[in-house]
Amino acid sequence: MTDVKAYRSYRGLPTLAGLATIGDAAKPGLSVEACVARLKRYHYAFMRLHEILTARITAEPIYELKTGFSHHAYLCAEHVAALRQRIGEMREPPLGLEEVPHPALQVFFDEILAAPTTEALLLGMYEKALPALDAALEQHLRDTNPLTDAPSIRVIRFARMEIDDMLEFGREAVGCLVDETQYAKYREWLGYLDGLLAMSGAIDGVARTLNEEKPARRFSIKPYVYDRVPRRDERFQDVWNQGVNAESFLYNPDLPAKPKTLMMLYKRLREIDVPEMMASIIAETKGKPWDYYRDMSRQLWDEARHAMMGEVGFVALGVDWTKARITVNWSHRLNTECTPIERHAVLYFIEQGLMTKTGKRYEWEVGVESGIPLIATIQDYDWADEVLHAQLGRLWYIPVIGEWKKALEYGDQCWTRILSNWQEVKDKGLTQHANWWPAIYTQACAAWNETPGAAALAFAETYEGARADLKGVTGSA
Ligand SMILES: [Fe+2]
Ligand SMILES: [Fe+2]
């Protein structure tokens, strides 16, 4: 009789396809039922994290957090999708996935969603929720059978890798933004979050007690309301400024490619308004299949990346981008004047326009022509992303309206309804539409060691003369 210890693989080769030793795999581990019960709770946690991160993108003023939340929301959406698929493989039809596993766990996430400040949100998210989820996943790896449950283990290992990145970001963000006084202010609340976790038997529910007392609410005592008004940090000045018509410069055949790269970088950075707007669509559109949220979150994240490409480009070219005026007009108006489906229609309408000859291909060609390799790279990937976004629009937007032509017309109509507010914001004293272009262009020329071209430097076209219905004006998205 061979016992586990005496057993040898052929010529000492790794056992069990490299998964584990025979000894580790000879322990029973979790039953399918117990495993699924835990997976459903990880799924719930990732779903709530995705919800919280998405909901807090728009009104979060700090750009680095806005883009960070966009990234992390997307990662969570992917892990939700992976867990749903795995649960569906385990004799469980993917049903009951929207159920709340425990009322205290629900309150735990509701509290973080309703955190009244950025500091509280960071602490709740990165010091409580994500570490608790990670601890549960780590425990799963210890408890389950490495051979029988190998597919779950694979999903969990991927998830933990990205949770690790998120925690790293969170630790640094807390270090930069939360001082001792702020921390002290929330210490009690953080302890209360620990209490909620204990009450629900932690994220995995394994340590569930029989204590069925109703969890008390603090910040979430009034149900959270998504804030759809976009906010920016203080580097974003004069946010109603529509004083430089970037498209008009970019599409002027008489102007050279090199200064055009600056207008493209401006357009990229201005795309920070797309995550602000898409977050509102996702937050306010309920009851869609998970693939919808995953795809929309992917696109949202791409748009945040496009904004960051603009940031990188400006920095690489030696330009202080804060001298440009990164308007909030587009996301503010779509979020406050349109319904979610109208916003999606406008997004699709604009992105369709980017697929034409004067769209993304042209921007890439300008990048190549400019002789600045980084700009070519940025526009190359921006173009590829936009092709994906047009596909996602066909998948998730068009079927809601009907067929393609009708859907496009509807997008056109919705966009036409947003009349130019150029005069209005000026009359209200919100902006003088100052021309920021020479300041940006001369900085770049100084870094290039070049004299500014007369025609490029003299450019002073605003959005004032643009069609009142703004059609074709903003190349956002
Ligand atoms: Fe984009
Ligand atoms: Fe896009």
List the SSEs and their pairings.
Elements: H1 22-25, H2 32-55, H3 63-88, H4 103-113, H5 118-143, H6 150-177, H7 180-199, H8 246-250, H9 257-270, H10 273-284, H11 290-316, H12 329-337, H13 340-353, H14 360-369, H15 373-396, H16 398-401, H17 404-417, H18 422-427, H19 437-448, H20 454-457
Helix pairs in contact: 2-3, 2-4, 2-5, 3-6, 3-11, 4-5, 4-7, 5-6, 5-7, 9-11, 9-14, 10-11, 10-12, 10-13, 11-15, 13-15, 13-17, 14-15
One fe (ii) ion binds next to helix 15.
Please tell me about this protein's structure.
The chain has 477 residues and is mainly alpha-helical. Helices cover 62% and strands 0% of the residues. It has helices spanning 22-25, 32-55, 63-88, 103-113, 118-143, 150-177, 180-199, 246-250, 257-270, 273-284, 290-316, 329-337, 340-353, 360-369, 373-396, 398-401, 404-417, 422-427, 437-448, 454-457. The longest helix has 28 residues, at 150-177. Bound molecules: fe (ii) ion (2 copies). Residues 271, 303, 306, 477 line the site of one fe (ii) ion.
Key features of this structure:
Ferritin; single chain; Heme Oxygenase, Chain A; 477 residues; binds fe (ii) ion; mainly alpha
Give a quick precis of the structure.
With 477 residues, this protein is an all-alpha fold. The chain has 20 helices and no strands.
